[in-house]
Every structure is written in C-alpha cells, then in structure tokens.
Amino acid sequence: MDEVQDLQTVVAGDESGRVVAIDSAYHVDERNTGRDVVVSASYSGVLPARFVADRRPRAAIGLDCAIGPEGAGIAGLWFYEALGIPAATADVRDVLLGDGVDVHRNGVISRVNAVAAACGVVPGMTVADAAALLLRAEPVTRAPDEITNRTVMESGPDGRAVVCTDSIAFGTPADRDTNVLVTAGHTGRSSVPYLREFRPWGFICSDGGRGRDDSGIAGLAIVEGDGLAGATVDARSAMVGDGLSSYRDGVISARNALAAACGVEIGMPAREAAHRLLHRAP
C-alpha cells in the first residue's frame, strides 16, 4: 500500500483511478477530484459530506455511526445524492473508528444512496467490493426530472404491473388503466391532477403525516369519484420521497371505498395491498 503524505493510503487502483483510505473525512484533498473512491473512517453526516463533496471524488464511503436520531449518521448520503456523487456507509460495528484502512478491509455496507445503488452497490456487500465496483462504474448523470427510480415490482394479468416511482407526478401514459403505482409523496389535493391525468389501475401514496384535517389523504376521497382505487402508507413506516420504501416498508394507513372493496385493509403491508389492487376485478 502506497502512503500519501501519511494522510491517504491507496488500497487499490488501476488506470481508471484509485481507492484511497483516509482516517478522517477532512483528509480528502484535490488529488481525489474526479478520480478516487474515498473510503473514510468518519461518520457520514452532512458536515463531513460537505468537506468530501467539495473535492468531488469519484465516490465516497463512510461510516453509519449507528445512524442515530434523525438519521444524523447517514444524512450525508442524500447530500451526495443531490450532487450526483455515489455514496454508501459501512456498519460501524464491524470496523475501527478512525482507521480508514480497517474500514476498507473489514467494513460491510449498511446503506447506499440512489446513485451508488444505480452502480450496483447493495447493503451486505463488503466495502472492498463496493469500492472496486464504484471504481469501475460510471454514474449516470440524469436531469432532476429524469430521476424517478421507476421499478416494476410485480407483474399481473393483461399486461398490468405494480410499478414503484418516487412521486405520482412521475406517472406516464403507459400507466393509464394498466399499472398500480406505488409512490411516496403525500395524497393531498395537489396529487389529484396527476392521479386524474395518469388514471392508474390503482395507487398507493404516502399520507405525509396526514396533517391538519387529514389534508394529507384528502385526495383519496376526491378521486374515488373518478373511479380510482387508492390507499396511503403511514409516513412513519416508510420514507417520504422513496417509492421503493413505500412498497417494502409501508403500512396502509387509509384507503378509499374502492380500494377497500378490493380487500385493502388498514394495517396491511403495502406490498400486499398493491397485490390486491393489481388483481382487482375490472
């Protein structure tokens, strides 16, 4: 391993770049810009992410530091994501704090941002493997209106499917009378024009924490008159803005009468509710 000014240790590399281990996020510098995957033994909050992101490395891996209240230990993942930088965290229980080489050698990925996920990094992967993958992968730069994270989760009869996307605004004409959309924005009145425009076979959104006078679920009753069966997940059970989390983690908190007639029940896992909506009678 090649030591660089006693602050950076090159632990892997090829002609495309290097994997550099650092004991602190503050040890990143201009040599890493656009070239290196930086593996840090600092927590992955917004403050360290700001320092690392200023140097625009190829990718960043830090520690989750037990995540903590309000996700403070991993909040930097989304700071990186907004800048298009692939980033992940390692489970702090497996590594030595303050020892970047140990993080690379013994770390296991615990969380990833969407940019790193698009490169193939997944929780459970070793840090060494994740860093090697990020060194080879070229992140896809997308405009904000293209970042929909649209994913088919289940196929059904007559070409229908359960499709996750992060907002009901990301529906497409292909969803009309065909797909069940599982999304992650609130279901207040501002969701209604999108629901009416795309007219999905069924839909599940977030309740957004419901708000005063249940304004976060007001759209359910409004679009019932349009013949749209829909439900919401409890915002405390799934990440707002992440359709995959709505599907995987969400628990149904409300539904309109049309969804209830399909067997959707309050307290049901969202994936089961989506399945029932997918297989509802025309």
Descriptive terms for the model:
alpha/beta, single chain, 282 residues, six-stranded mixed beta sheet, elongated, 26% helix
**Count the strands?**
13
Morphology: elongated
Helix-strand sequence: EEEEHEHEHEHHEEEHEHEHEHH
Cα-based radius of gyration, to the nearest Å: 21 Å
Helix content, binned percent: 25-40%
Largest sheet: 7 strands, mixed
Proportion in β-strands: 15-25%
How many DSSP helices?
10
Low-confidence runs of at least 5 consecutive residues: none
Distance between the termini: 64 Å
Q: Strands across the major sheet, in which order?
A: 1-2-3-4-5-6-7
Output mean pLDDT: 91
Structural class: alpha/beta
Would you kindly provide a written description of the structure presented here, covering whatever features stand out?
With 282 residues, the protein is α/β, with parallel strands linked by helices. Helices cover 26% and strands 24% of the residues. It has helices at 46-54, 76-82, 100-106, 114-118, 127-136, 192-198, 218-224, 243-249, 257-261, 270-278, and strands at residues 2-4, 8-14, 17-22, 36-43, 59-63, 87-90, 109-112, 151-155, 161-164, 179-186, 202-206, 230-233, 252-255. Helix 1 (46-54) packs parallel to helix 2 (76-82).
